[in-house]
Amino acid sequence: MTPISNELNSLKTNIINMFSLVIHQFENSRTSVESTDKDLIEEIARLERRVDVYELKLNMDCENVLALFSPVANNLRFVLSILRTNYSLERIGDYLYNIACILRDLENPVDPEVLKEMQISRMFDISLEMLKIISTAFENQDSQQARQIFKKDNLLDEILMKSNKTANEIIIRKPEETLAVLSLLTVIRKLERVGDQTKNIAEELIYFLEAKVLRHANQEA
Prior knowledge:
The protein is 85% helix and 0% strand.
């Protein structure tokens, strides 16, 4: 195996490890919504620091590969996809940490009925599934699997669009839940952004595998 092949394999291993770390952080975040477990929230913060360390290391590793080997064609696309995926995963980690901070400020667990009406658990389920799908797609180098992400992201957008109306209805019926409802609106926005970042990862993977830039597809003549 050539030196550049070793470096590229190392990049892939490290990005897969970062996926696993963020997925673990995600699972803790989902549980903390229902329990407002302060210890679990602190664990999410600890994992966020580890994600940040991974991001810095991967950035430096990618820069080293670019400087030492001057990769071209497929190898260059792979390194660029790692860089951009690395950024998106770090942003997802930030969003999960933000959600943990929001929950930490709530004195009591959120009413399960309120969680259900605002579709919080459904959003967590969809966005976590998206992250697991794209992690597997990245590991298997499967662009068709990556394409599953786009329809699922639309589901998150639909929940976001309905969230303000749902929140208003709940506050009218249960004014005592106003603070919790407003906090959950912020959680919904963060989860929608998680979906956007996961979609970005899917686009990067497809770009690497098929040399297509999906973001500008609609601008083509």
